[in-house]
Design goal:
With 231 residues, this protein is of the alpha/beta class. It contains 10 helices and 6 strands. Bound molecules: zinc ion (ZN).
């Protein structure tokens, strides 16, 4: 059986070659989604603990979150940057799934994953979703769900932006960001530990606005945050 499986995998590889999204080299049959060489070079974000680190501290000034984690350091000049570009703009939905599965393997045994009751992806506005065709955060969350068994709950929605962010000051920008997210939490889902999922965390403004919306809809909920990358 393993021989047959290997043969089928070789055949699939021959018919539809896969390429490493980081370095562009052709993937071998037993490579998962990035090549073996690149997988030894993940620019990992070193986090010693999940309940006190740069992710949760960035959130704490505005909202209470329990745990926070991110796996890769996002830098524009890094070839790993391509991974995120691929899943955000080039239809890399399979890749987003794979990243989600990989993320759960990396987080296995963490208190954050153990505490979570559900995965909630950061939503896109309807307009963005129409443009892009998919929500990369949802794809990552679905990959995480496959690997962890946790349910994905799309309880957040995002309205189209009312004002152009660029023309606003920092305070107005924050208020503007807050109005655009809304959460609907069913009675049966109240008091749960929500793991909010997104692709990249930059200032944390999006995650903060989403956490606010979640806690507004259910003050008894607990929220933790996970992003694949941190910039
Ligand atoms: Zn590679």
């Amino acid at each position: 059986m393993p021989k047959l499986r290997q043969w089928l995998s070789d055949l699939a590889d021959l018919l539809q070659p896969r390429f490493c999204p980081v370095c562009g080299n052709r993937l071998a049959g037993n490579d998962s989604f990035i090549c073996a060489a690149c997988s030894t070079q993940w620019p990992r974000l070193p986090l010693e603990r999940y309940d006190d680190n740069l992710i949760v501290r960035a959130m704490w000034a505005s909202v209470p979150v329990t745990y926070g984690a991110s796996l890769i350091v996002y830098r524009h000049e890094s070839p790993f940057h391509e991974l995120l570009t691929e899943i955000k703009y080039r239809g890399g939905t399979m890749l987003a799934h794979e990243l989600g599965r990989w993320a759960v393997r990396e987080l296995q045994g963490s208190e954050m994953l153990a505490a979570a009751d559900m995965l909630v992806p950061v939503p896109l506005s309807r307009r963005k979703l129409m443009e892009r065709g998919y929500n990369q955060a949802l794809m990552i969350a679905q990959g995480m769900a496959e690997q962890s068994g946790l349910p994905v709950c799309e309880i957040l929605s995002r309205h189209d932006r009312l004002k152009n962010q660029a023309s606003l000051g920092a305070d107005e920008r924050r208020d503007n960001a807050e109005d655009i997210y809304e959460a609907h939490i069913a009675e049966a889902d109240r008091g749960k530990h929500i793991l909010l999922v997104d692709d990249v965390m930059t200032t944390g403004a999006t995650l903060i606005a989403c956490t606010r919306a979640l806690l507004k809809a259910d003050p008894t909920a607990e929220v933790s945050v996970f992003t694949v990358a941190h910039s």
